[in-house]
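User: Sequence recovery, please. Input:
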């Protein structure tokens, strides 16, 4: 019959649509449950195995002090040869060890626990284990007692007053890209994207002279300390020598295949060095206009260069994130530093110490000379594209970036003691806050910055600042990254 059921069978209950939909929802919940992405609960047994292995690796080679008599040492040696050693740390007091005369507060090595007791504790019999020795002690020691504390030897910076902007000079009609100070410390010159070179009085900031001759922006300037010459280089592939007695160009150095980005004068011999977008640093004889060397080896734009009287006489930084040392006698590479990860746009040698700093978007690094050994990173990151840097005899390093940030550092310790932000001129865009060039005057007491808002700003130390008004907030580094 339709309603009858066979013997041993259960009647099938009619299921409603609601019940079937709930079953479907439950099945979807099981499939797409958020618990699937979570880690399972920790297993106590596997944790014990991991701890046992770690103890075996960490404390296998630790030897204890000989605190037992000679016969006892022989017995212990026979026992320890059969089984592995364990490191025993001081634990609760015990009258038995007091009778044996074990010294207090000592770390001793004893025979390992028997396999049966090890199995009870959850450790394997083959691995070493930490157990508490029943040595009388007033306090419990941890494994930190085994670690030697090394005091921090990082040099503490001296207090320095903050720097402030005291003068803004306007006159250029384009971005100010380069600056150089006269060795007599009476005037300085700036080159701009308006294709002019302007000479300013250093004390008053008054315009003294405007020179024209380039047909593109001027990216490099240098003033000779032995002649009345000034050198300029720009995006028009031209390198010019200006006679400051006649205020005109007397020589041009032809050879670059693209824009010239940097320029430097050798301190002892009449040699000029220029680097540019053709990835070559060219060495020129000032008098004869001849090219002495073409220092080729970089894979991208050479954007920074400085010279020294001794080896390495030429140091170049490039957009290929490398720094190269050059032998000026043979025109060959002496060393290549690959510590940076981004373009090395600026370098600054210390005036009196045998070391220099290099700036990149990833970090500011210090290297020793003449071998180029890495010293350390600066303790903070400016986190912008750094276009210029300068250091004075007092050990104040200034770095400037594309976002208008001007940071001041203590050279010895790498501590950033001031973070200044330039203020764009009225009518300028906020994106024109970049700083393209920095230099100190001969005394090192005034800093000149060339900026994208077409102005030149001058900075000096705040004479009213004291250690109480501007305290030194310095913390020695704990985990300083080497690279």
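Assistant: Recovered sequence (483 residues):
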């Amino acid at each position: 019959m339709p309603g009858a059921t066979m013997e041993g069978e259960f009647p099938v209950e009619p299921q409603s649509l609601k019940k079937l939909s709930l079953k479907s929802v439950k099945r979807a919940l099981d499939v797409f449950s958020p618990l699937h992405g979570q880690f399972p609960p920790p297993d106590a047994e596997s944790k014990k195995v991991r701890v046992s292995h770690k103890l075996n690796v960490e404390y296998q080679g630790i030897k204890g002090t000989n605190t037992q008599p000679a016969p006892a040492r022989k017995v212990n040696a026979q026992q320890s040869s059969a089984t592995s050693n364990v490191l025993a740390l001081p634990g609760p007091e015990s009258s038995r060890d007091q009778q044996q005369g074990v010294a207090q507060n000592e770390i001793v090595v004893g025979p390992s626990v028997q396999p049966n007791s090890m199995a009870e504790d959850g450790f394997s019999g083959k691995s070493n284990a930490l157990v508490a020795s029943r040595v009388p002690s007033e306090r419990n020691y941890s494994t930190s007692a085994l670690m030697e504390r090394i005091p921090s030897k990082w040099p503490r910076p001296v207090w320095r007053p903050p720097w402030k902007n005291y003068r803004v000079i306007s006159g250029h009609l384009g971005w100010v890209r380069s600056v150089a100070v006269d060795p007599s410390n009476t005037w300085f010159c700036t080159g701009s994207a308006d294709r002019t070179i302007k000479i300013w009085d250093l004390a008053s900031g008054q315009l003294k002279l405007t020179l024209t001759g380039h047909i593109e922006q001027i990216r490099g300037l240098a003033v000779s300390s032995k002649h009345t010459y000034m050198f300029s280089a720009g995006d028009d592939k031209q390198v010019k020598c200006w006679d400051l007695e006649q205020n005109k160009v007397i020589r041009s150095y032809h050879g670059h295949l693209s824009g010239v980005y940097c320029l430097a004068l050798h301190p002892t011999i009449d040699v000029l060095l220029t680097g540019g977008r053709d990835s070559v640093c060219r060495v020129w004889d000032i008098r004869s206009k001849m090219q002495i060397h073409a220092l080729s080896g970089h894979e991208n734009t050479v954007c920074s260069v400085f010279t020294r009287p001794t080896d390495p006489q030429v140091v170049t930084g490039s957009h290929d994130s490398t720094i190269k040392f050059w032998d000026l006698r043979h025109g060959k590479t002496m060393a290549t530093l690959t510590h940076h990860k981004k373009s090395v746009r600026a370098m600054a040698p210390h005036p009196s110490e045998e070391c220099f700093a290099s700036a990149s978007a990833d970090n500011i690094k210090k290297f020793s000379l003449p071998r180029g050994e890495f010293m350390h990173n600066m303790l903070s990151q400016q986190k912008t594209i750094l276009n210029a840097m300068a250091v004075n005899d007092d050990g104040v390093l200034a770095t400037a970036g594309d976002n208008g940030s001007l940071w001041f550092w203590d050279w010895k310790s790498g501590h950033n003691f001031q973070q200044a932000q330039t203020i764009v001129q009225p009518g300028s865009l906020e994106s024109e806050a970049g700083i393209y060039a920095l230099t100190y005057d001969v005394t090192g007491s005034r800093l000149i910055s060339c900026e994208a808002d077409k102005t030149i700003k001058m900075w000096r130390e705040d004479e009213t600042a004291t250690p109480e008004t501007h305290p030194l907030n310095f913390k020695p580094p704990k985990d300083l990254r080497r690279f």
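The longest strand covers residues 163-170.
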